[in-house]
Write a structure and sequence with these properties.
This protein is mainly α. It is 49% helix and 0% strand. The chain is built from 11 helices and no strands.
């Protein structure tokens, strides 16, 4: 009888120990899952393809590929090469990246070079995707926003789609349209999208 009681107590202690361990692992996983790192990084628009190439998502990637945003960097490569060859002021060349790339500045690493080459990609409006690009986070708007995601704002468009006089460093051929509402209608990529008209939290604009 005493041996049986000892066995039952031992069994109960093991069950309690394993249960506590499982709960601890679950809590730690949830905390780590919902706590973004302090360093957000750009991952490129290719990371968006798995979930945003369907009709349900508004064919977002296809809309981007067909837009002038996707070739924004290519459109200035010749200009940048010309400026470099003629030793024009470096600052002028650097300023081109502000509106023709996702990063908003020249690449500092191989990974950033890939992001720059894609022109003005998804993350230019929606923020660096390293922490929010997984489906589990993207499916939950509050988690998307909590992990560095940004809904996007028409005010972001106005950083680049300005009057020529406001960007004298650009070539005369660079006449980007200033009607941001008309421009948004060209790249609208989600039927439920309610893009904001207020200032967003993206910080790579200037």
């Amino acid at each position: 009888m005493i041996s049986y009681l000892r066995f039952m107590l031992l069994r109960a202690s093991y069950i309690l120990w394993f249960s506590s361990l499982a709960i601890g692992v679950y809590v730690a996983h949830k905390l780590l899952r919902d706590t973004p790192t302090s360093s957000l990084a750009y991952v490129g628009s290719a990371s968006c393809q798995n979930c945003h190439s369907s009709e349900r998502s508004g064919n977002a990637v296809e809309v981007w590929i067909r837009s002038r945003h996707a070739v924004a960097y290519q459109s200035i490569r010749k200009e940048l090469a010309t400026r470099s060859a003629t030793n024009l002021e470096v600052g002028d060349s650097v300023s081109c990246y502000r509106c023709h790339t996702t990063l908003g500045h020249p690449p500092a690493t191989v990974a950033e070079a890939g992001v720059v080459a894609e022109g003005v990609g998804c993350e230019r409006c929606h923020g660096p995707g390293s922490e929010y690009s997984s489906y589990g986070i993207m499916a939950d708007e509050s988690r998307f926003l909590g992990h560095g995601g940004v809904k996007g704002s028409l005010s972001d468009c106005r950083h680049c789609h300005t009057l020529p006089a406001e960007r004298p460093q650009c070539p005369s051929s660079g006449t980007a349209t200033t009607d941001v509402n008309a421009l948004w209608s060209q790249i609208r990529h989600h039927g439920r999208d309610t893009i904001a008209t207020t200032t967003s939290t993206i910080t790579n604009r200037n």
